[in-house]
Design brief:
Blueprint: E1 8-12, H1 14-35, E2 40-44, H2 51-56, E3 62-67, H3 69-81, E4 90-94, H4 102-107, H5 113-122, E5 124-133, E6 138-139, E7 143-145, E8 164-167, E9 170-174, E10 181-187, E11 190-196, E12 200-205, E13 207-211, E14 220-224, E15 227-232, E16 234-248
Parallel strand pairs: 1-2, 1-3, 3-4
Antiparallel strand pairs: 5-6, 5-16, 7-10, 7-14, 8-9, 8-13, 10-11, 11-12, 13-16, 14-15
Helix pairs in contact: 1-5
Length: about 250
């Protein structure tokens, strides 16, 4: 990165500094040393809401997110909503507690600050497929229906939901028989959709639509990228092939 003259904007999520300030310092030092004097700018966010503004002022700088899964997802969503995601490759140094780094581990990023910083400097951009929904949002990792139960629900028996699931216009389940779970993830240009009920159905498709009243008729909830979403009575996800370019370690 430094040898190629690429300018770098390090965006530090405030949660990373609270959880592991030493790793944040290490990442900053390694990146500044590797990229070269005058090539690096650092922006310490005051809060999660400051992410869109920091990205809007990035200019021609390569953005390096220092933070956890939520920080990466906030950056991706902000760029998606501004229509700049395809033209703004990202890099990341994961910093956070282990449970908060499940998404980036799944993507193949190292979670050690030194190794991750070196991957930023010497790695290569890799296109990653995303799921774009009909509400203008985007999902980086897999999503699941229903959302996991909160602590006060864990002793309750979970019943199936009456959900209608369609993939590319093909009906997988008609909403009459209960469905215990639906999972969706983007991979190799298509969505891998798994519906679990009386039997398990697995297909690959360009888009998937889920509709249903959900518990109490208020709609269903789903879990995506470390957050619970919904309730909604209908949602369509479409694969955004190569929608994100993320700096990854060289093979």
């Amino acid at each position: 990165m430094g040898a190629g003259g690429e300018q770098v904007l390090i965006v530090i999520d405030p949660a990373a500094r609270r959880v592991d300030g030493e790793s944040v310092r290490i990442a900053r030092d390694v990146l500044c040393a590797g990229a070269g004097a005058g090539q690096v700018k650092v922006r310490v966010l005051e809060g999660p809401q400051a992410m869109p503004g920091a990205l809007a002022r990035r200019g021609s700088h390569r953005v390096v997110i220092v933070g956890d899964d939520r920080a990466l997802v906030r950056a991706v969503r902000a760029l998606h909503r501004s229509g700049e995601l395809a033209a703004a490759p990202l890099a990341m140094v994961p910093v956070g507690a282990a449970p908060a780094l499940a998404l980036v581990r799944g993507l193949g990023l190292p979670t050690d600050a030194v190794a991750a910083s070196r991957a930023v400097l010497g790695g290569a951009d890799r296109p990653l497929d995303l799921l774009a929904d009909d509400a203008g949002d985007v999902v980086v990792g897999p999503l699941g229906i229903p959302a996991p139960r909160t602590w006060w629900q864990r002793g309750l028996t979970r019943r199936g939901q009456r959900l209608r699931v369609e993939t590319d216009g093909r009906v997988l389940t008609d909403g009459v028989r209960p469905v215990s779970a639906v999972s969706v993830r983007a991979a190799d240009g298509l969505a891998e959709v798994v519906v679990r009920g009386v039997a398990e159905v697995s297909v690959r498709a360009a888009s998937v639509t889920v509709t249903g009243p959900g518990p109490g008729g208020q709609g269903f909830r789903y879990r995506a990228d470390a957050r619970d979403c919904g309730p909604t009575r209908a949602r369509t996800w479409t694969v955004l092939a190569g929608g994100l370019h993320l700096r990854m370690p060289s093979a």
